[in-house]
Amino acid sequence: MGIPTVLAIPYAAQGHVNPMMTFSQKLVENGCKVIFVNTEFNHRRVVSSMVEQQDEESVLKLVSIPDGLGPHDDRNDQAKLCEAIPKAMPEALEKLIEDIHLKGESKINLIVADLCMAWALDVGRKMGIKGAVLCPASASIFTLLHSVPMLIHDGIVDSDLGLTLTAERRIRISPSMPEMDTEDFFWLNMGEPKTGKKVLKYLLYCAEHIHLTEWWLCNTTPELEPGTLLYMPKILPIGPLLRNNDNDNNKSATTKSMGQFWEEDHSCMSWLDEQAHGSVVYVAFGSFTLFDQNQFNELALGLDLTNRTFLWVIREDNKMEYPHEFKGHKGKIVSWAPQQKVLSHPAIACFVTHCGWNSTMEGLSNGVPFLCWPYFGDQPSNKTHICDELNVGLGIDKDKNGVVSREELKNKVEQFFNDDKNMKSRSMVLKEKVLNNIAKGGTSYENLKKFVKEIEE
């Protein structure tokens, strides 16, 4: 048999495209060809932010299919997206595969679907193509989604609205797993209740298809979620999914920045080189978080108040004005950063983060402690995991009006630098354990090898 061809399909959000792209690059390094399927909207963003364009001969080929939304629809509206995807994308994916086979360029041997796109396994089944599912979130989020029917049966979750019915704030899915706060169930943190309801309905539709494969891959490691992996041994840890940060010579620089929706500003790296070791507060809230003007002001003025050097990522779609008192002279602001490289820089002291799982894995892999400021979805439960289970972070608290005050930010930064909780040393111990998984002979390394061998057979 020739080189195996894998079709990879992430959910249409930056936090899903990134890990799927990293996984695809690992498959390429292990001798596979990958056809990477974005929505047309995201494909355009990815291609325009790439430093160099692809050639036709590439072993990692970017293609696209429509997401079912209109040209002016808001792609950040999760309810709309989750309603449009099942109507439009399965058929479009089938057609794409037929076209690829008709042209005779490649015969697709396997589909790797994001957990939030697991319906693609059914498209594969109809066409005689095997599949695998990749969860870009934690194993406990995977387990929670898998357990929703059981939670509905046990009267803990309302079957129609997804609302919590139990009076108990904390539950355990299994005795081996950490407690979960029922208010942190990811679908209850999507803004509008009806958004959460539609997202949950869509994800349960996806979860119905995961039995179509034996391969449940997850961006995690045994040390991070031992109890969950004990309860769900079918979940195979292949994390941390990290881009190859080898010296940026030859083509590695381009492949590394593939998959970004915004162009990375590398000027922050030379700026970091000029800062003292362990002195910089890195502030980045991922691809979704949006603050109102009041919260934006408090954040900016809080950074001034800390009197510490900071690197702050503010996306281009941020429409907020800087408060007129904001000096910002101790910091650098960029619109999108090469985050993994930033976190591996010795100047970084701590990471003020929204607690997205990719950011969490990247922080852990670099031994960087967290100041946790979750925004939505699975982020509140990731925060609990970072602070209570792993003990490598501090929560940033909101006041009674739901705002993080400038004083609160300043106090938490101070508390971190006084580090009476030894977070930094714990982070470094955890870093070594996490990275051992992707070294030769490590759990994730071996799981990936086993997976590639299966594709080849």
Compile the SSE list and pairings.
Elements: E1 5-9, H1 14-29, E2 33-39, H2 40-49, E3 60-65, H3 78-103, E4 108-114, H4 120-126, E5 130-135, H5 139-153, E6 170-171, E7 180-181, H6 193-207, E8 216-218, H7 226-231, E9 235-237, H8 252-257, H9 267-273, E10 280-284, H10 293-306, E11 309-313, E12 331-334, H11 339-343, E13 348-353, H12 357-365, E14 370-372, H13 379-389, E15 393-395, H14 406-418, H15 423-436, H16 443-456
Parallel strand pairs: 1-2, 1-4, 2-3, 4-5, 5-8, 8-9, 10-11, 10-13, 11-12, 13-14, 14-15
Antiparallel strand pairs: 6-7
According to CATH, the homologous superfamily of the largest domain is: Glycogen Phosphorylase B
End-to-end C-alpha gap: 8 Å
Strand order of the largest sheet: 3-2-1-4-5-8-9
CATH architecture of the largest domain: 3-Layer(aba) Sandwich
Regarding CATH, which class of the largest domain?
Answer: Alpha Beta
How would you sum up the global shape?
A: globular
Q: Could you say which structural class the secondary elements and strand pairing correspond to? A: alpha/beta
Largest sheet: 7 strands, parallel
Total beta strands:
15
Give the mean pLDDT. Answer: 93
Oligomeric state of the chains present here = single chain
How many domains comprise the coordinates?
2
CATH fold-level name of the largest domain = Rossmann fold
Discrete helix count: 16
